[in-house]
Automatic annotation (TrEMBL):
<dbReference type="InterPro" id="IPR004252">
    <property type="entry name" value="Probable_transposase_24"/>
</dbReference>
<protein>
    <recommendedName>
        <fullName>Transposase</fullName>
    </recommendedName>
</protein>
<dbReference type="Pfam" id="PF03004">
    <property type="entry name" value="Transposase_24"/>
</dbReference>
<feature type="compositionally biased region" description="Low complexity">
    <location>
        <begin position="26"/>
        <end position="42"/>
    </location>
</feature>
<feature type="region of interest" description="Disordered">
    <location>
        <begin position="1"/>
        <end position="75"/>
    </location>
</feature>
Length: 275
């Protein structure tokens, strides 16, 4: 199959809103529109991109933290963001950046499930993902198979292999992790950056995600221990200074009482003098 070079044309239907849950309902060997098995009772659902009915003119309420980051669970599509959700102008930059990141993740999922498992473009084109038109899928396959894109992908793969810190937080933002941590605390305290790092770089079995993350978390603990020790020393020093101050005040009080007593002894009482 002749492959065309990277084109400025973008797929007409290839948007994050169309197939957020692509791959959850079909395997790479399943063609578009085909059922997964005969007699299957599974039902395909729209998933997180389904529309939300609202009265005309009303918008969904989204919770935001003090950094302008959303902490609500439902926050998925451009249409829902711009038309159905109440968002201030100052927060749109974060929203658009987040959507761009999710769009890249969605395309990466497509490539992992429907492109990489096969050896030839003919096999890939014969097994397109659901909810993506044939023309869009053909464009994507040709784009990923082009020499220019292959070269970029190889460089990106090398850069990823150089990364020694692995994130375990999934697609959930740090803002949501922070909000969940605050809600789970009875004292209402705010988690530190070190605590958030530990939560997002720890596996389900409780072990660090990688040696470098373990080293960083150990360093955090050492710093916290040192700071705690320094704080205890400082508090003890403050208490000692307070004790000295209290002692000095008591000594001054005794001195004043002695001086007053002495003054009464050497000076006659004017009320007892003879007229």
């Amino acid at each position: 199959m002749a492959l065309r070079s990277r084109s400025s044309r973008q797929p007409t239907g290839l948007t994050p809103e169309r197939a957020r849950d692509v791959g959850d309902h079909a395997s790479p060997g399943q063609s578009a529109g085909a059922s997964s098995s005969v007699g299957s009772t599974s039902v395909r659902r729209r998933g997180p991109t389904r529309g939300i009915i609202l009265p005309q003119g009303e918008k969904l309420h989204v919770d935001w933290n003090e950094h302008g980051q959303p902490t609500s669970d439902r926050f998925t599509t451009l249409l829902g963001t711009t038309e159905s959700v109440d968002i201030g102008e100052e927060r749109k930059k974060w929203v658009l950046q987040s959507m761009a990141s999710k769009y890249r993740e969605w395309k990466n999922d497509l490539k992992e499930k429907y492109y990489k498992p096969f050896d030839t473009d003919a096999q890939r084109l014969a097994r397109p993902p659901p909810d993506i038109s044939d023309s869009d899928w053909t464009w994507l396959v040709q784009y990923w198979s082009s020499p220019e894109t292959q070269e970029i992908a190889a460089k990106n793969s090398q850069n990823r292999n150089k990364q020694v810190i692995k994130h375990c937080g999934g697609t959930k933002s740090f803002a949501r992790y922070r909000e969940e941590e605050i809600r789970s605390r009875t004292d209402g305290s705010v988690p530190t950056r070190a605590e958030l790092f530990a939560r997002t770089h720890t596996k389900k079995d409780g072990s660090p995600s990688d040696p470098k993350s373990a080293e960083i978390m150990n360093r955090f603990r050492e710093l916290a221990s040192t700071q705690e020790s320094d704080m205890r020393s400082e508090m003890e020093s403050l208490r000692e200074r307070e004790r000295l101050r209290e002692h000095e005040m008591q000594e001054m009080k005794k001195t004043m009482e002695q001086m007053q007593k002495y003054m009464h002894q050497i000076m006659p009482d004017p009320h007892n003098e003879d007229p």
